[in-house]
Amino acid sequence: MLKLTQTFGASLLFIIIHLKYIYLYHYRIHCKRIFVVGIGFFSLCFLMTSLGGQFSAKRLTDSPFTVRTEVLGGVESRGVLRKISDMLEVIMKRMDSLSKLENVNDSRRLEELSSAINRIQPAGLVERIQAIAQNVSNMAVRVEQILKNSMAASRVVRDGTSGQCDVPRDPRFPDCPGKVDWMRARWTSDPCYAFYGVDGSDCSFLIYLSEVEWFCPPLTWRNHSSPPVLPKSPPKRQAAFRTDLSTLLDQVGTGKESLSFMKRRIRRLASQWATAAYRLDIKLHRRWREQKKILVHVGFLTEESGDVFSPKVLKGGPLGEMVQWADILTALYVLGHNLKISMSVKELQGFLGVPPGRGSCPLTGPLPFDLIYTDYHGLQQMKQHMGLSLKKHKCHIRVIDTFGTEPAYNHEEYATLHGYRTNWGYWNLNSRQYMTMFPFHTGFMCLLVVAILVSYLYLTLDFFNQGKEKFLQILHRYMEVHGTVYYETQRPPEVPAFVKNHGLLPQQELQQLLRKAKLFIGFGFPYEGPAPLEAIANGCIYLQPKFHPPHSSLNHEFFRGKPTSREVSSQHPYAEQYIGRPHVMTVDYNNSDEFEAAVQEIMRLKVEPYLPYEYTCEGMLERVHAYIQHQVVNASRVWPGGPFTRLPNSMLLGWAGNSTALPCWPPLSALRLMVSAEGQSCVEACQSSDLVCEPAFFRFINNKESSMFFCKLQLEIQCEVVELEMNHIFPAYSVTRGECGLQKETLLFSCAGFSAKYRRICPCRDFRKGQVALCRDCL
């Protein structure tokens, strides 16, 4: 209707113009030749204006062919049409003025008009109009072919099948009539329907809804005599370690400073990755490993997401995300997997094989990848273009999530009902699909952590404002103070005069500076950045502030809106808890005496460079290998009560049965069962016993038998009632009511939840020294 209106409007405009100049012809005989010129020019303009609707239509819901029309028309075509419209207006005004000149002869009028046309005609206009006309002609031929094929298909469907396209009323498919009504009204809303053969007939609707989607029963008159030929699963291939990274560098691509940064990092660490691959291969006894097909879609660097990071790479902007992605890509490639990398939505569509359109139609074939690594931006883009298929294939997705997503924020219905809804959560994924940079985010031990970190140490002027200078003055009494604050030549940074500012340094020079330094100081931001680990690895002592009270989404603007309630006790909790003294000192910056005492102690200490194993290239390869080969995230079955026993010399309970009899990773031999204090999360409870919370174990303890046995043996009490509900605190024991509560929704199994009314039943596990993400038996 939109295009018909536009064409009709253009026709009406031409008729008005035509009548106007017929009037001029009858009553102003002197303008006869002007009219002849005008009618020729306006005929051409009428042709283009009539076709203008084809190029200027914006609505995607008009026709399944609209998207193709947009491509053929393009921005240039619309610009030409706008110019033609301007020309029409100018010429009409000029001809009106000429027609009023009684004392000018016909030749003069014709010359004036020709001169006016020549002056306003842009160079190459005729050629461009011809090119557009040719495009329109080609498009018309293609549309005609599509319509002929569609009509032929409709005739084939109708022949001998009269009455067989009536909408079925089958109780097994209650949504079928409603879906057919929806298709009648909206089938042109997405070109993907036409891609699957929908042509507006009820027969095509029923074929689509029964064979592409699943809302209607199979049609008996369709050829179902032979079962569909399912594609054969390709033979499994062995993953072999790679040490030549040239192919990976080509895959990363070019054109952005962020990509150049990532490639520089990959090249710089190439020898370390090669050594790590050799050592891990020996550690695994060169066992056979299956090669996986893996897609990595870096959503935050796509143009569609805005890509605010690339322009800041050379201006001291945040680099942690790019460091993380560079190391993830390298680890997957070195491990020998079949890797595809997507840095745009167009590449994403091509790799996934989604039908053209807006994502309303599902994928009909199998997902071409075993695993997909992406971020929240990429997840949103996948939802837009995969449509219904995302729910079907979401168990293959792994989300690189810097700060972590807790189950209460992840479960859409629960988050909406209980005030946990944010812009980043509600994806209904298994908590183990979120992979964080550090190993204690709400107990999600499925993390990908970077190896040796960061290329540039960046500081901003905010660190020297808001009272920070007094700490530097204390430091200046004991040592020289150096900084790497980015600045532009015309605007030098406002740092204290005693600070020697080096600006942004290349990696080699930064390493040299850190090796000479005694102390690396944190001013409270950024949180959990990679720079402190880089400094510790080069022999620095890291001094950081302790937060009173801890920072969280409840009291700090930075965390507000993030899908986590985790409380951050210091600028870098991992360094505080898992490295500690003498390499890390955490003090109250509000107490000048405590701060100066820490500086004096640092001056007396001498430490060696230290880097936890999990942050080395080998540690990351080991961890990623274990996740890819062993982790299963779609296991949701709750098992009946298992045999538990009290561990020797401990208040903890362990699995007493055959730990290899049940399909589980980590293995049940690592399970340690304990109860938290009131108001304590399972993360904190497990940490108090030098363990970590393992969400994969919740399904083995979330049952009546285990809860009652646990309460009787561990708490020496008898549970009166066992209730089942959606509550991210459960399984837990209510002290006031004497009741055990079990979890009704497996997606809400959470290590993070806590309540003053409950003591939580916590599934903890052991971990390998220097590799918190893996248990002792996880390899």
TrEMBL record:
Subcellular location: Golgi apparatus membrane
Associated pathway: Protein modification; protein glycosylation
Single GO term (MF): alpha-1,6-mannosylglycoprotein 6-beta-N-acetylglucosaminyltransferase activity
Keywords recorded for this protein, A-Z: Glycoprotein, Glycosyltransferase, Golgi apparatus, Membrane, Signal-anchor, Transferase, Transmembrane, Transmembrane helix
GO BP: protein N-linked glycosylation
E.C. no: 2.4.1.155
Major subcellular site: Golgi
Domain Glycosyltransferase family 18 catalytic: 192-764
Membrane topology qualifier: Single-pass type II membrane protein
Organism domain of life: Eukaryota
GO CC annotations, alphabetized: Golgi membrane
Catalysis performed (reactions): N(4)-{beta-D-GlcNAc-(1->2)-[beta-D-GlcNAc-(1->4)]-alpha-D-Man-(1->3)-[beta-D-GlcNAc-(1->2)-alpha-D-Man-(1->6)]-beta-D-Man-(1->4)-beta-D-GlcNAc-(1->4)-beta-D-GlcNAc}-L-asparaginyl-[protein] + UDP-N-acetyl-alpha-D-glucosamine = N(4)-{beta-D-GlcNAc-(1->2)-[beta-D-GlcNAc-(1->4)]-alpha-D-Man-(1->3)-[beta-D-GlcNAc-(1->2)-[beta-D-GlcNAc-(1->6)]-alpha-D-Man-(1->6)]-beta-D-Man-(1->4)-beta-D-GlcNAc-(1->4)-beta-D-GlcNAc}-L-asparaginyl-[protein] + UDP + H(+)
InterPro entries tied to this protein: GT18_cat, MGAT5_Glycosyltransferase
Transmembrane domains' residue ranges: 6-23, 35-55, 438-459
UniProt family annotation: Belongs to the glycosyltransferase 18 family.
Name of the protein described by the UniProt record: alpha-1,6-mannosyl-glycoprotein 6-beta-N-acetylglucosaminyltransferase
Taxonomic path: Eukaryota, Metazoa, Chordata, Craniata, Vertebrata
